[in-house]
Amino acid sequence: MIDAAPALVLVAEDDDELRYLIVRALRRDGHDVLAAADGVSLRAALDAARKYGRDPDLIVSDVRMPGMSGLDVVRWLRDQECAIRTVLVSAFADDDMVHAARALGVLHVLSKPFDLDDLRTVVLHLVSSAEGPQR
Fold first, then answer.
1. Is 55 within the bounds of a domain?
2. Residue 2 located in a structural domain
3. How confident is residue 63, by pLDDT bands cut at 50, 70 and 90?
4. Whole domain around residue 82: which residue ranges?
5. Is residue 76 part of a domain?
6. What is the DSSP letter of 24?
7. Predicted pLDDT of residue 53
8. SS3 assignment for 96-130
9. pLDDT in tens, 101-126
10. What CATH number should be reported for the domain holding residue 63?
11. Is 12 helix (H, G, I), strand (E, B) or coil?
12. How many CB atoms lie within 10 A of CB 21?
């Protein structure tokens, strides 16, 4: 039996401490993780991963970040016809934002503060589920 490659997860979070905690937890769970401090850096990380022939399995992004919000990143992904599953985290997850995120195909929105184990469970479920990529 051949072991599957670890999932590649891109994490965008402008809070350095929270980004570190998320990355560390996901790496402990066996995922390959690329981290970015904002949406623009996330786009660059995505381009770099693709340059080396690897599409990320999942993106975990904060909503409010300097330069390019998490929702802007999701819109950009859709404009590029990029079907990477996406999870958003936000301290400002009101009904309007959640509705906008869902309309763009975001699979899950976690409100800050969140339990890191909840995020780990969501990530594990999404990268291991048999569903095809989001559209």
1. yes
2. no
3. very high
4. 8-128
5. yes
6. H
7. 87
8. HHHHHHHHCCCCEEEECCCCHHHHHHHHHHHHHCC
9. 999 999 999 999 999 999 999 999 99
10. 3.40.50.2300
11. strand
12. 14
Please give the full DSSP string across 38-90, using - where no structure is assigned. SHHHHHHHHHHHHHTT---SEEEEESS-SSS-HHHHHHHHHHTT---EEEEEE
pLDDT tens digits, one per residue of 14-41: 999 999 999 999 999 999 999 999 999 9
Please say whether the beta carbons of 68 and 37 come within 8 A: no
Segment (H or E) for 20: helix 16-28
Provide the token pair at 81: 């016809």
Looking at residue 3, its pLDDT comes to: 56
Q: What is the pTM of this model?
A: 0.89
Question: Residues 119, 58, 15, 74: is their CA dihedral positive or negative?
Answer: negative
The burial of 116, by beta-carbon neighbours within 10 Å (0-12 exposed, 13-18 middle, 19 or more buried), is given as middle
The total number of structural domains that make up the chain: 1
Q: Is residue 135 part of a domain?
A: no
